[in-house]
Amino acid sequence: MNKTEILIIDDEAAIRKLLQIALESNGYKVREASNGKEGIIMAANHPPDLILLDIGLPDISGQDVLHQLKDWYQKPIIILSALDNEEDIVKALDNGASDYLTKPFRTAELMARIRSSIRRGETENNDANIVCADIEIDLVSRIVKRNNIIVKLTATEYNLMALLMRYQGKVLTHQYILREIWGLSYQSETQYLRVFVAQLRKKIEENPNQPKHILTESGVGYRFA
């Protein structure tokens, strides 16, 4: 039985009840907080394996809760919010959220996002060799393989690939990728990033025009699936 514990921080009782039923039916343990301060205290006293966090909380902003949690909490935080504008999504992801799902959401999709975030956290902590379907990367030897055949990448292409695969399943914003790969002065060069993503897709995707691995999150960034 799955012993993973999930903390819900959401002020809507109906949403908490819906989430509780869905999570417990999938074998998760559930704890609930109805506001930001209560959620922070609960997370600090007994850190869960994953947090589902609403942005629109009654006492303090969910963005502020996220910022405070990420100072010490290293496990996944998935944002659940009725706010679907790019600014809020980008801000949450840049503040350290693992994923962002807008309300109303499909239960099956939420469960898939939870499983992906938990797997990704385990991979980040334990594995220098990441495998995703037909793609494999060895972070020690800096080798990328597709269907067990070595893919020849430039240094920049490899760094981009490694970043995406380390956070597979998570949306990485344009600004975050540009900052991590090229530095602070490149944070606005989204066209530059698109060129390198296109090059990388040609080398690792079966059909670069219909990518299955490097997915575009419109107006936000990219996700390695």
Quick structural gist:
The chain has 225 residues and is α/β, with parallel strands linked by helices. The protein has helices at 13-25, 36-45, 62-69, 86-94, 107-126, 155-166, 174-181, 190-204; strands spanning 5-9, 29-33, 50-54, 77-81, 99-102, 129-132, 135-138, 143-146, 149-150, 171-173, 214-217, 221-224. It has a 5-stranded parallel sheet with strand order 2-1-3-4-5, sandwiched between helices. The protein has a 4-stranded antiparallel sheet with strand order 6-7-8-9, covered by helices on one side. A 3-stranded antiparallel sheet has the order 10-12-11.
Helical stretch count? 8
> Which regions are unreliable across 5 or more consecutive residues at pLDDT < 50?
none
Strand content: 15-25%
**Which fold name corresponds to the CATH topology of the largest domain?**
Rossmann fold
Write down how many β-strands occur, each being a DSSP E stretch of 2 or more residues.
Answer: 12
Order of helices and strands: EHEHEHEHEHEEEEHEHHEE
Give the proportion of residues in helices.
40-55%
CATH architecture of the largest domain: 3-Layer(aba) Sandwich
Query: Helices and strands: which structural class?
Result: alpha/beta
* Main pleated sheet: 5 strands, parallel
